[in-house]
Amino acid sequence: MVETAYALYLAITIGTTIWVAHTLSRNGIVFLEQCFGQDAELARSTNHLLVVGFYLVNIGFITLTLSLGDEPVTMTGAIRFLSSKVGLAVLVLGAMHFFNMGAIAHFGRKVNGWLAEQGAPRAARG
After folding, report:
1. Banded pLDDT at 52 (limits 50, 70, 90)
2. What is the pLDDT of residues 103-114, one digit of tens each?
3. Helix (H) or strand (E) holding 22
4. What are phi and psi of 125, to 5 degrees?
5. Distances in whole angstroms, Cα of residue 59 to Cα of each of 12, 27, 53
6. What SS3 string covers 33-93?
7. How many other CB atoms are found less than 10 A from the CB of residue 30?
8. Taking the alpha carbons of 22, 91, 62, 43 in that order, is the dihedral positive or negative?
9. CA distances from 106 to 13, 30, 48, 51 (A)
10. How much is the pTM?
11. From residue 121, how far is each of 108, 114, 117 by CA, in Å?
């Protein structure tokens, strides 16, 4: 029972982390290019760095939380174990996403402002 619950926890949370990172990376590139004044190279580089950081933080969090809480001994306990641990991991994924979006949007405004000060044409600023 315990080994199965841990295996399911790891499979669900790491699988979700990979899916979310892939989805955000694929669909976020347009947002990043807009934030970085249509600089595709900077957007791709930032996108890759965000994905690496996303994996490191989330997989670290997932593995650290393995040792938290009581080990399940019944089916009901296993369901509670999985729901609380998976739920916490999903909340952390969501929080990281919103934090990153806010930070990137803030940084993008600074880049666009700097480009405007440099006299870059509006198209180059996004």
Report:
1. very high
2. 777 776 666 666
3. helix 2-35
4. -90, -5
5. 12, 21, 10
6. HHHCCCCHHHHHHHHHHHHHHHHHHHHHHHHHHHHCCCCCCCHHHHHHHHHHHHHHHHHHH
7. 10
8. positive
9. 29, 16, 19, 19
10. 0.72
11. 16, 12, 10
